[in-house]
From TrEMBL:
<feature type="domain" description="FAD-dependent urate hydroxylase HpyO/Asp monooxygenase CreE-like FAD/NAD(P)-binding">
    <location>
        <begin position="6"/>
        <end position="165"/>
    </location>
</feature>
<dbReference type="InterPro" id="IPR052189">
    <property type="entry name" value="L-asp_N-monooxygenase_NS-form"/>
</dbReference>
<protein>
    <submittedName>
        <fullName>Adenylate cyclase</fullName>
    </submittedName>
</protein>
<dbReference type="InterPro" id="IPR036188">
    <property type="entry name" value="FAD/NAD-bd_sf"/>
</dbReference>
<dbReference type="InterPro" id="IPR038732">
    <property type="entry name" value="HpyO/CreE_NAD-binding"/>
</dbReference>
<feature type="region of interest" description="Disordered">
    <location>
        <begin position="541"/>
        <end position="560"/>
    </location>
</feature>
<dbReference type="Pfam" id="PF13454">
    <property type="entry name" value="NAD_binding_9"/>
</dbReference>
Amino acid sequence: MTASLVIVGAGPRGTGLLERLAANIPSRYGDRPLDIHLVDPHPPGGGRIWTQEQSPLLWMNSMAEDVTMFTDETVEQEGPVLPGPTLAEWSGVDGRTFPSRRAQGRYLSWVYARSVAALPPSVAVHEHRDTAVRVSGPPGGRQQVWLAGRPTPLPADLVVLAQGHLESEPAPDQRELNDFAARHGLVHLPPAFTADSDLDVLRPGEPVLVRGFGLAFVDLMVLLTEGRGGTYTTGADGRLTYRPSGREPVLHVGSRRGVPYRSKIGYDLAGEPPPVPRFFGPQQVDELLSRGGDLDFRRDVRPLIDKELGFAHYHRLFTAHRERTRMNWPDFEEKYTAADPGSAALRALVGAAVPDPADRLDLDALDRPLAGVRYRDGEALQEGLRAHIEADLARRHDPAHSPDLAVFLALLSVYGQLVRIGDRGPWWHGFFSYLASGPPGPRLRQLLALSRAGVVRFLGADTTVTADERRGIFRATSASVPGEPVEARALVEARLPEPTVAHTRDALLRALYADGAAAATPAGLLAVNPDDGRILDRSGRPHPRRFALGPHTDARAGGAFARPRTNAPAFRQNDATARALLTFLRDRTAPPARHFAKGATR
């Protein structure tokens, strides 16, 4: 019987796994026959997120030279490296540009086709443009994967769940807001992928409250301005001016921080990169994991992360900008190593060695730049936020502040180590995204132009939205301008749905969780074995035949594709899982051992 592998999800993560299967089959599986079934209602490669049907105005959040689907010699893996082009090399575009998501979708489709072509003739790939709704079967036997449009299940020796970003049922507070909007004829758009939302319900000229100031907001901003016919012109001084079409609503945007994500850094690192990991590497993770369940992120993990980021920052400052320090690096490094994270001794060391406070790393101030800041009125807030964004743009494009880039590289290193720890709680992922995964600089320049044009209005930090039942209106307030509420008949939640398995709309995952065949972390992520992605049940036992990869798991990496030469966690995971799959299938299909009587010959 031919071995069968079913991969649910043929987007970037499923494609990356397929690439690693093709790379490892010659040495790990040989020429044995194998059926690979790919189940996804969307085209393989790009999947739903990178579809060719979305607006061409939507950009990637990475430069073309920073996007690859292929491993290199930096990836810590057992499988072979099969080099491949970056998005920039494949498409022939300037590597410093931010391509459209359509362009990335075409690249992913090509990677998928190349991976299929790299498989030996003994492997057959079957595409099913359908939705997997259930998995059944005993741990010791073949599984059955049931599809929505097929009366009989797909037989599977192994199943991999790589659905990617999940849709979720509304949380209780979102259901209450939906019900309130329905009662009063208002508009409430819950968390969703902005490109999938029905934005036609937002009328021209009307005020719209927006909660969320990250990448989902940037997409919303683009689609409701340029997407409705507005244009930008550039003055002689390089400043953008927005010319409205008259079809835009007025976006009143706020969030917990009250500021947009930090701009992408606009220069390359010259000279020596930060030597990380140093204070948060494999040894420290081993020590943390040895504690078992007695592990608290804020108490045990966060201090190590802070010290790692600080080390990268000061290493760069002392080696590239020595004129701004008062101590030689070896002395500083020795004392920094000996000091406890967050201690008075560490603060005193930095204060003595780094005279300008602007050169000192203050992660709390970075995380909450408006904490304690109060503006006299709404107009002062608009001016203050524009100044904040302009300063961020200037700093993130000035190599004189290259310690920022060192911290970015350290953040990538930390993310790679945290994969082994699993569920990191909500703070880390949000902080990483805010500091390391912000929008391209041109998008923030557009935001400034929209603010000057009055199309975007800032609400401030600690934004809260209440539903006024008596008046039938949404009301937003913030800590930045106390006593100045903003009212609107439309509310948009500009953020992605939480990837919780308990409340996902994915019927397959919801059923596994309800049956106890899949466990969830405190944050609601699917619990998996970090070594190979095997799904854990509620007792913590790994299922021998079911695997999961992607953002819905507690081993989620920074993305299904990555920057070249960064030892990307997703690539390491894909290789380890591919080899585990092939080893299982090889042993399952190996011919039985032959026993010979004494004196017999082969």
